[in-house]
Amino acid sequence: MSAAKRLFLLALAISLIYLLPSFAPDDPYRAETGVQLQPPSMEHPFGTDLLGRDVLSRTMHGGARSVRIALMGTAIALISGIMIGAAAASSPRWVDRLISPIIDTFLALPGFVLALVMITLIGTGETAIMFAVGIAQIAPTARVARAAVLTVRSQGYVDAAKQLGAPPMWIMTRHLLPNSAPTLTAYAGVVFSYALLNGAALAFLGLGGDPSVPDWGAMLYEGRIAFRSAPWVAFFPGAAITAVILLAGWVARLNPRK
Amino acid sequence: MEIVRRILRGVFSLWLAYTLLFFLLRILPGDAITSQMIDSGAGAETIAARRAALGLDQPLAAQYFDAVFRLARGDFGVSLTNGRAVSETIAQNLPPTVALALGAIGVAIVVGLALGVWSALHTLGSAAISLILSVPILWTGTIAVYVFSAQLNLFPSGGAGRLSQLILPALVLGINTAGAIGTVFAAGLREARYADYAITARAKGLNHSHVWVRHLAPNTFVTLIHVIALQFGFLLGGVVVTESIFSRPGLGRALLSGVLAGDYPVVQGIALVMAMSYVVINASADLLTAVVDPRVRAQ
Fold first, then answer.
1. DSSP states of chain B as a string?
2. Is A54 helix (H, G, I), strand (E, B) or coil?
3. Which of B150, B241, B274 has the CB atom closest to A204's CB atom?
4. How confident is the model at residue A258, as a pLDDT?
5. Chain B residues 123-182 within an 8 A CB cutoff of chain A
6. How far is CA A195 from CA A76, B113, B284, in A?
């Protein structure tokens, strides 16, 4: 399948996630007494949760929040990571010698642990999770960006441009970044996957703020309490996370040059 | 010489990590003590006295040098919530986490290698790897508890210490980690398959399994060792979630309660221990590749 078709599918999937809430059959906040933890039925196709809320509606609403957190986290990681990595790769040697050990230091802390440290720093809630999962991915992104730019930098045409007197910013925006793009877009898919998984895990651990707000990770947390008697509460949001990551991985593997 | 340089770089990284953690966590305006004592209705004087007892009224730089000096002697400071030494909390929670991590990395290697061969031979194997890489551990973990503990009653759903309590969490965390190992092993096998030495081996009439085991697999070992060492970091992150799902005591859950309470000596101590094990494992992996591969040794 061509790159354009896949990108179209990705755009379709993202807009679908944002459009889904308006098609939800029920109010995701409405707790109905007497129908708690009901198995899937015609009325509630995904069943109901601990408070008698419709799981289908909550799953449809929860995607918007979980994917928004992951997209913002990805943006934070990519923008900072690429800037730091490109700066390290294209600056004089001593700048690289200064930046690289700091990148390595952050890499020594597992991403999810770093996200937890960030939560301790900035508190809980949606914005906090965005920054936590984003900041946790900056160092690996910087490392990948640095390696990609270094590879392109050793090409003959970059030398030629330098000899012709092209300014460094021109070389960066016209040669180094566009030619690193295939590696970086593929890596963006990885960053997005981790951002979605880590964001869901933080919400799952109860760090996502108000638990009544529908969110796939938080739903898994609530589902776990009732899992012995009502596995459907956790099953559907988990399946949704898996589907989105599979799709993101498949889109990211495309090569924009082909 | 290479070994010494590698160790020095690791120590430098850890020192930098500790320093960053120390100052980052102290930018916070409030800490566990203040919030705890305000909750219990203590006056400003009591809070100040308690902070002074823990040395929190000293200037930051003095606190930092004091902390580094203590750290060199294995003293990680004192928890702000229960007054226990952080090193004690770590020592107590380390064994179940080490058991989980070792079990999980064992599962990850076995499953990862099997997936790699399957993926190199069949596209269905690649699909299985993609699926494993996409499934959140919080989901597989809860499903595993439901199926194997609640429904089939095969394993206990929580606790630590006995082997039966380790099997399920180690399998869940290990399989979750196996995807990346499988990807790299498969890529290595595919690449080696059409290398000159592999074609020669087959042309000599060696049977296929012999070529795979003796010629193709060993050539992927160096990358494989690095990936397993790198995956260890991912695994340490997964430990936090796994221990919560299975209600296992361990470093991950101690870290989580530290995060929830704003108890920064605990957060800092456990994060440092995790970083330390990650650095040590990756340095050992570098050395191990030299033992395994004569080409690396020659460099």
1. -HHHHHHHHHHHHHHHHHHHHHHHHTS-S--HHHHHHHHTT--HHHHHHHHHHTTTTS-HHHHHHHHHHHHHTT---B-TTT--BHHHHHHHHHHHHHHHHHHHHHHHHHHHHHHHHHHHH-HHHHHHHHHHHHS-HHHHHHHHIIIIIIIS--S-SS-SSSHHHHHHHHHHHHHHHHHHHHHHHHHHHHHHHTSHHHHHHHHTT--HHHIIIIIIGGGGHHHHHHHHHHHHHHHHHHHHHHHHHTT--SHHHHHHHHHHHT-HHHHHHHHHHHHHHHHHHHHHHHHHHHHH-HHHHH-
2. strand
3. B241
4. 38
5. 130-131, 133-139, 142-143, 145-146, 150
6. 10, 27, 29
d(CA A76, CA A135): 7
Q: Nearest-5° angle of CA B229, CA B111, CA A231?
A: 110
The per-residue pLDDT of chain B, averaged, comes to: 83
User: By three-state DSSP, how is residue A55 classified?
Assistant: helix
Residue in B17, B25, B130 closest to A108 by CB:
B17
CB contact under 8 A, B130 and A120: no
Rounded distance, CA A242 to CA A65, Å? 16
Q: Residue B255's closest CA among B32, B75, B89, B68?
A: B89
CB contact under 8 A, B139 and A239: yes
ipTM, interface predicted TM-score of the complex: 0.83
Structural contact between residues B186 and B120, judged by C-beta atoms closer than 8 angstroms: yes
Judge whether residue B144 has pLDDT over 90: no
| Residue A235 to residue B143, Cβ atoms within 8 A | yes
- Contact status, residue A85 vs residue A141, Cβ threshold 8 Å: yes
Which of A239, A241, A249 is closest, CB to CB, to B130?
A249
Amino acid letter at A124? T
CA–CA–CA angle B179, B297, B217 (5° rounding): 35
Interface A-B: count of C-beta contacts within 8 A: 136
Is A74 in the B-facing interface, judged by CB distances under 8 Å?
A: no
Residue with tokens 């203040």: B34
Dihedral-angle region of residue A72 (phi above 0 means left; psi in -120 to 50 means alpha; beta otherwise): alpha
Q: Which of A205, A228, A238 sits opposite B136 (nearest CB)?
A: A238
C-alpha–C-alpha distance, residues A148 and B275, integer Å:
26
The rounded distance, in Å, linking the Cα atoms of A115 and B238 is: 12
Would you place residue B170 in the very low, low, confident or very high pLDDT band (cuts 50, 70, 90)? very high
Per-residue pLDDT tens over the stretch A187-213: 888 899 999 999 999 998 888 878 788
| Residues of chain A contacting residue B9, judged by C-beta atoms under 8 Å apart | 101, 104
CA geometry: angle B39, B43, B48, nearest 5 deg: 100
Tens of pLDDT along A91-111? 888 888 888 888 888 888 888
